[in-house]
Amino acid sequence: MTQSIHESVPVQEGTEIPVKEILCTLSARWSVEVMAELDGGRRRFNELTRRLEGINHKVLIETLHKLQRDGYVRGPLTSSKNSTVRLVGYELTELGVTLLQLVNGVREWLDEHEQKIVDARSDFDWTKREMEFMKE
Questions:
Q1: Which residues are CB-neighbours of 89 under 8 A, at least 6 positions away?
Q2: pTM of the model
């Protein structure tokens, strides 16, 4: 059964994460691009800034923090109860790698179906213009 984006994913007893919240983080302007840059291995902050053309420091920091918070990225603010290791730079976690694989699958699907989407949009736009013209 497919879950609605308005439902929550049970995590631990008494704790839930709204699916919509997770999707919002992933659909944010830079999230997937940052993760794709980290797919090549650990990157320092300034290197990410140079490689991600058009992103500013504030937005990159916010994006990295959101991705770290959800466990997709490990970086200087990442620690665990059993570890005191400080990382220099950012890298994908195992969770981030599996998520990026899914995103790449969606990209492949989009590449395969791009023309159908373009055609559907064109048909819709043409029909909408015709309907508006007929109202006049």
A1: 42, 43, 44, 45, 47, 75, 76
A2: 0.71
Residue 32, C-beta contacts closer than 8 angstroms, at least 6 positions apart: 26, 100, 103
Q: How many CB atoms lie within 10 A of CB 74?
A: 23
At 114-133, the pLDDT tens digits run 999 999 999 999 998 888 87
Handedness of CA 18, 21, 102, 106 (dihedral sign): positive
* Beta strand 91-92 pairing with 73-74: antiparallel
Count CB atoms within 10 A of the CB of residue 129.
10
Sole residue written with tokens 């059964």:
1
Structure tokens at 69: 């918070």
